[in-house]
Amino acid sequence: MINYHPSIEILTDYAAGSLPLAHSLCVSTHLEHCNECQQQIKKLETLGAHLFDQGHTEHRQLSNLKDSFFKRLTEEPEDLVESPQANKKPVNEDVMQWDDYKIPNSLRQFITKGYNELNWMRLSPSFKIATLYNEEGGAQVALTRIKAGAHMPVHTHTGDEITLVLQGAFSDESGVYRKGDFINRDASHKHQPIVTKDAECICLTVLDAPIEFTGWFARLLNPLIRRYHPHSH
Ligand SMILES: [Zn+2]
């Protein structure tokens, strides 16, 4: 059961193709397993096509288009309500089963064999990180792997952080996050995630800027993180 979804702003940017590649990757992976957001994207695409057909997009700024999206979303005009035929399709048909340790389709270009084959870098006895790619201009896409029951060092973000849970679960002071949950944290957020005791946790993470550890690990980890993140020099 997925409880945390991308915001409507993120989904709209995704549908409009204006979301950075790194962030799109997280959204695509979430969509593979979230029927609710798939429906939302379909709705946004229908609205986009509808507005485009009416010539509304010409000479208009993207922000205006977004305003229209939100307005139309809340209005639910009759001509945009899905036809009964579209509703015949059983819910969840498009949603893949989320098998244990199955690599999501969106990530197969980066993870060809399996999680174990990646180039994991050990940052502490219980915390490993593997970079999938670094986007030009800064964002880092990585997998983090934390042992069952482990506390991650307290850290803050100098940029936004998106986390998508791929395996296992973790919690922080705001809640418990399980497979498929999409968590977006801004720079002001300081938190200490704890992995549940039953299994290790693997997450897909997009960092706009490298994380900074604020606890006793700071001296040990920050130079490693900086070395590991080529855009932070
Ligand atoms: Zn969702």
From TrEMBL:
Gene3D superfamilies found in the cross-reference section: Anti-sigma factor, zinc-finger domain (1.10.10.1320), Jelly Rolls (2.60.120.10)
Species of the source: Marinomonas hwangdonensis
Organism lineage string: Bacteria, Pseudomonadati, Pseudomonadota, Gammaproteobacteria, Oceanospirillales
InterPro entries for the chain: Anti-sigma_ChrR, Anti_sigma_zinc_sf, ChrR-like_cupin_dom, RmlC-like_jellyroll, RmlC_Cupin_sf, Znf_C2H2_type
Protein name: Anti-sigma factor
Pfam family for this entry, one: Cupin_7
Boundaries of every C2H2-type domain copy: 34-56
PROSITE patterns hit by this protein: ZINC_FINGER_C2H2_1
Recorded superkingdom: Bacteria
